[in-house]
Amino acid sequence: VPLDERVIFSGNLFQYQEDSKKWRNRFSLVPHNYGLVLYDNKVAYERQVPPRAIINSAGYKILTSLDQYLELVGNSLPGTTSKSGSAPILKCPTQFPLILWHPYARHYYFCMMTEAEQDKWQAVLQDCIRHCNNGIPEDSKVEGPAFTDAIRMYRQSKELYGTWEMLCGNEVQILSNLVMEELGPELKAELTPRLKGKPQERQRQWIQISDAVYRMVYEQAKARFEEVLSKLQLARPAMEAVIRTDMDQIITSKEHLASKIRGFILPKAEVCVRNHVQPYIPSILEALMVPTSQGFTEVRDVFFKEVTDMNLNVINEGGIDKLGEYMEKLSQLAYHPLKMQSCYEKMEPLRLDGLQQRFDVSSTSVFKQRAQIHMREQMDNAVYTFETLLHQELGKGPTKEELCTSIQRILERVLKKYDYDSSTVRKRFFREALLQITIPFLLKKLAPTCKSELPRFQELIFEDFARFLLVENTYEEVVLQTVMKDILQAVKEAAVQRKHNLYRDSMVIHNSDPNLHLLAEGAPIDWGEEYGDSSSGGGGGSPSPSPPEAATLSEKRRRAKQVVSVVQDEEAGLSFEAGPEPPSPASPDSVTELRGLLAQDLRAESPLLASPLLNGAPAQESPQPLAAPEASTPPTSPRHLPPGKAVDLEPPKPSDQETGEQVSSPGSRPPIHITTEDSAGVQTEF
């Protein structure tokens, strides 16, 4: 688990309480599973008092202005737009709100005292949303794609083609969104006339009704989905026995079916591709390539700067004795929301102007988040490669000067490898995105003339094989094949142009380094344990004294470290209204200030979160090409990275010679259990 025994971020923010209509200071925590946890204050957290709320942010959007929010709320319930000058549904006492908006579930209202605070929390919460949206385990090579295909084909049966913005979260959340997509308009039509009061009051009532219905749908969908899964597991052995026995006949039957469908579909599909898809592929690809390539270049630059800063610190300050501290921080670079933000935000300008409506792309957010996940994976791969090669070098017992030379040489090797790996990942991303945009469009265009003819092909399938060969699946495969050639050709031509540092598929990797093929072997590196100073400890803010029987658990909690190592110590849970403003929870205004704080011994030792998310299933990380160690054992004491010195260097530019294969970051998350609302008023959100 990459973030095992770590806390991504913690600090104070102000939350609007709908029951009391007051703003209250909350101690907030983002644990390794990316669920935002809200406590009354830091003391309540340290004493293990149950949290006020645990928020799974899948499907949410972050809004940074009240105008945005009021517009969305007004659109969600037509006819309730507030008159000019009337009181809005929500008032924010500062100019820096942060609102979590969901089309069906309840909304969360936060505000900060400074713009820097707002930017920082926005980056952290956006990371939570990005992670929770990616809730279906990608290491599931069969069940995951089968589920998403089933959702897509169900929506196509309702004449809903194109991308779907609410295909996010785990399976139960996606099913709940699917139900609400149909149920929401019916409820709205039936209940809107019955809502009483002023426009803002009716808006508030509708949000509460929608949230209550969404919770009921979630619980029912969860029960039904688990029931379906158990039935499928029971039926699987018998189906596998038939497949193994009759595989040759099944394959022959499928090839015969595909040839017949191809003969019927191909002429129509080729005309459709030539007239309606082919002319637009270069434009779509260009729109995707520009921000994506900028984002991956930024990943490269951030990695280069962090390693160069570390190397200067080794030369000028700590030497080899401090290497454990520096590497401990570098190992978590891919999971640092603030340092990675400059990479992620390169995707924000992505637009498919003109093409979005033509191809029925409801939103580009699905492509933005996918590219951002790839960026994080490639950063993690680069850091892991660097860690492993440096660890090999340290086995030779180098002096400080030799170590600095080795770090520079290893950095160049890793960057060369990154250039090739990122090119491969980007080309795959472009191919997948083009298919995701064009295939639904083609199916929609062909449906009027082809869909009604498909049932007659059913007679070509033997009854014994009807469970394994589906006419509609074969039809979609044929349609995919008609456009795949054009997509592959477009990506290949883009690589030949070298406009965005893409490498040709035929390129030979010269001077390949054999050591890079061995990176996935061996135990995980514990930098704090091997190279750290065991006498250094964490900062203030340690938990309250524990009874002797809880000593072991407390010691484990005390070791929990933060990826963003700033814990704010404001503990007063004071409410405030739109009158005198409370003191601002202090926080760094930039990564530079953050590093300055990291140099000080300010870390409050943070206990691990005991309450998990109400997902029912873990939100998974994307798998990597090779398997890295499964867990990274945290060192015994918190450590901090001294502030890096400004470096006036440019990272080496991508070259034509790359080395090695992709390596992996750690894999899946631990299971997440179910919690519900209890008598103490603890709200657990999903």
UniProtKB/TrEMBL annotation:
Region (Disordered): 528-686
Keywords annotated in UniProt: Cell junction, Cytoplasm, Lipoprotein, Membrane, Myristate, Phosphoprotein
GO cellular component: adherens junction; cytosol; membrane
Keyword Phosphoprotein: yes
Domain (PH): residue spans on this chain: 6-130
Membrane topology, from the record: Lipid-anchor
PROSITE patterns per record: PH_DOMAIN (PS50003)
Record's keyword annotation contains Membrane: yes
Residue ranges with Polar residues bias: 677-686
Subcellular location: Cell junction, Adherens junction; Cytoplasm, Cytosol; Membrane
Biased composition (Basic and acidic residues): 647-656
Compositional bias segments (type: Low complexity): 625-634
Similarity comment: Belongs to the Niban family.
Identification of the protein by name: Protein Niban 2
